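dude i think i finally got it to work??
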Amino acid sequence: MPGRNFLFVPGPTNVPDRVLNAMHRAMEDHRSPVFPKLPLSIFPDLKKVFRTTEGQPFVFAATGTGMWEAALVNTCSPGDKVLATRYGQFSHLFIDCAQRLGLQVDIIDLPWGEGASPEKIEEKLRADTKHEYKGVLVVHNETATGVTSNIAAVRKAIDNANHPALLYVDGVSSVGSLEFRMDEWGVDLAITGSQKGFMLPAGLGLIGVSQKALARRESAKLPRVFFDFGDQIKANATGYFPYTPALTLLYGLRESLDMLLEEGLDNVYARHHRLAEGVRAAIKAWGLSLCAKEPKWNSDTVSAIMTPAGVDGAQVIATAFKKYNLALGAGLGQMAGKLFRIGHLGDLNELMLLGAIAGAEMSMRDVGMTQIVPGSGVGAASEYWRGGSTAQPAPAAKSAEKRGEPAVAAR
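look at this
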């Protein structure tokens, strides 16, 4: 099919030309005396994106799933108990990872379309008077349902219960796109990957680890080899890795960090909020609803759009791909066939999103959703975005400015 494929799944995301050009290079010796210059420039800038001064970032040749495992094996022992919330496919898989590693997982099940419940977490932790829970597992942005949870409120719940549990946060589809404040929110293990907000191909697992979590390594007894933080700490100190790194992806990461910090993290958050609001205006104009049950849970990186009864969301996705060269996200787990997803994160702007909205409109009409008025979503989104030429900060980003933090982070 002529023309460019419109990639609007919530990951992998579009890779900017700057990043592609940075990765287009010959292989080199990763043990050479000049190689450390690259990793040693990356680590401090990763800390800026995680928004931590005390935490330590690690880069693995892996994905977010690998970072789930790395987070757990470096801090837990066989049979340890952890508390987890489940409200979507990825929180379900995070739990599955912990269980398969031999951990006892106490699960707080919530309806898909809701976010983490700080109240239920606090209740569970208060009842754990012996402090058996070693950690609390939360997915910040549940991609399957388009739901973002309040991590600051989860930390407050842990603190209110006066519980020593570590806070494990899956930020795979939030770090680098949504507001994320590792230190301020007391996140002990911040898990992410390269293929979403960092605008890279899949292949790098990124994790920020607090000093409290690093201290757990001494007593953690789960087996670990490839994912051992200790090996990374020794090698990273001099700018090397304990094994062959993903060289081209590291050069891409260097460029993506430059792009994020040039734009300024608060501006990145504001751009994603503005773009997401335009998509939500389109969905409202179509007369459809989000999977997210309340606006407080709306995700600024992906919108999960419920299809009417009798309409298979998978057909909308297949039609968009085959007829219009548009890739939309599928419904997963409990939501299979019930929705389709528009990813709106990473390297994108208003006109790119208008193409996705137009393609979704045509596809919905093609599968029998004739109630969708042609151009209605495009018109609503474009009018929203025309309302102001400058992106306005999301409410959380405004609070950062009030704290006197710079709007643009400099390298």
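Confidence is low (pLDDT under 50) at residues 389-411.
im so relieved honestly
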